[in-house]
Amino acid sequence: MSEAAVLQRALDDLDIEALRRKYLDERAKRLNPKGNSQYIEVKGEFSRFIDDPYIEAPLVRDAVDETVSALVIGGGFGGLLAAAELHKIGVTDIRIVEKAGDFGGTWYWNRYPGAQCDIESYIYMPLLEETGYIPTEKYAHAAELFAHARRIGEHYDLYPRTLFQTQIVELRWDETDSCWLATTDRGDRIRAQWVLSASGPLNRPKLPGIPGIETFKGHTFHTSRWDYDYTGGDSRGGMTKLADKRVAIIGTGATAIQCVPYTARDARHLYVVQRTPSTVDLRGNRPTDFDWIKTLQPGWQRERMDNFNIFVSGMVAPVDMVQDGWTDLFRDLVTSWMPEDPRAVPPEEMARLTEIADFRKGNKIRARIDAVVKDKATAEGLKPWYGMLCKRPTFNDDYLEAFNRPNVTLIDTQGRSLDRITETGIVFDGVEYPVDCIIFATGFESGTNYTRRAAMEIYGRNGKRLTDQFTPRPRTLHGFFTDGFPNFFMLGLSQNAFKPNITDMLAEQAEHLCALIAAARSEGKTRIEPNSEAVDAWIETIREKSKARRQFLATCTPGYYGGEGDLDQGLLIETYADGSIAFSELLRTWRAAGDRSGLEVH
């Protein structure tokens, strides 16, 4: 097919100018000059929203005073992967500190009904081959994910080396002894040569600053602290205690997409309060095919992870092993029309074809809403009008269908949020809706300082605070190290590359950092720190490469990817814009050079 024919097919049924205007109009409705400050910090009278409801009994123990080789902060998949890699390089004298009552991180806290991974479990659940486990379905539910985190902890004998229900409050570098001293809220004092921090980029719940939020007399909780004592049931539903309750769920992001169908089935009435609709495509969950399992060869999980990453990076491979909504999305957005040699297409034409592909995919998403949702006004309200990658895409087979139930009402605020909350209900556009319970599906802090999200202060050489070091924005080398903070390594999304499969990203980071520690140990070296010139150069690289991403996110409806309209606070703004495959190659080349450029190792 000629290029002209391909373009004509892409243009079918598209009114480009009308769509551009619609996207801009919908964005304008949602711009809030307050940015991230429109949310309430969860503290004081709202501190119950971060309390741990899953602990059967508070832990009682003596304070620990010890010296270890490595301290791992966080017991989610990032911390578990760091501990596993330390174990592989022979560093078993470690201490893990985790504020929750068990391993799991995201999957310890998120037990809301319908909670699942949105990346297929065969590549999302780490260390499957190492632990000898096969997930029961393509998209595992929360209980299975939580159980797998515990499985990893048991496999590497990490439970005896972990302090649960414990929060590090301060981390301070001791120049005399060349080690870190961590103090906790339980009076512990832990000295460690190496610190790997995996506290997670999205871990601290946030609440919307709706007037009157503190006055509500009914029941409230955040989805990351789901109150089954109030609702009954468990993460698979059966919430019989909601049978006589009028419930409001505030928020329509990835969490609400999963918990709305279950709450709709069990509540007397459900009000879904929407500021901005999500893109919702098919998920297609299914049980694991055990005939397929019999065909797997050693290394299958790594191969499958890499194959997925190729497709979601806008490239192609001979076979799509995963074949899910993610690979379908990037096929529609990129590979379905991209010529074999993209360099042959002028940049202006590439931008135009990219926009057309995005509009076509958006039309498919909106057409599905029309096909599923019976009430036309509700269907219109559920339609997203923004670029497909402005927000994390969602996949669910039951969310849209829930709005066909007579006991479900969409309150589409058109980006304005609620007018206020009263003692007995919620108010929008002058109409009060009486409710017994408000559930906040409002996500987690993003764009705030690293130390605030980690709930600890970190003092490096000469007492410098990491809060100051990362104000107004982070300064790192490769997203892992920062000057003035020796032997302090950060896992997670920072000035490095984003992978939709977060656990794959964390696994690569843990392997990279532990390889550096192993090399230093083999050479009798005890200290790793970047020099300021290398950090400055990396920041310049990140910001130069991020220009195109900034331009794109500046056109998006507000969300945490773009800092709620304040681009400098966006989660993805300072990531490595050339993508994860290019970043992985950069790290491989950097390691192969052998000189550890930019690091002072001694």
From TrEMBL:
GO terms for molecular function: monooxygenase activity. SUPFAM superfamilies: FAD/NAD(P)-binding domain. Keywords: FAD, Flavoprotein, Monooxygenase, NADP, Oxidoreductase. Pfam families: Pyr_redox_2. Its cofactor is FAD. Residues 71-278 form the FAD/NAD(P)-binding domain. Belongs to the FAD-binding monooxygenase family. PANTHER family: BLR3857 PROTEIN (PTHR43098:SF4), L-ORNITHINE N(5)-MONOOXYGENASE-RELATED (PTHR43098). This is NAD(P)/FAD-dependent oxidoreductase. The lineage of its organism: Bacteria, Pseudomonadati, Pseudomonadota, Alphaproteobacteria, Hyphomicrobiales.
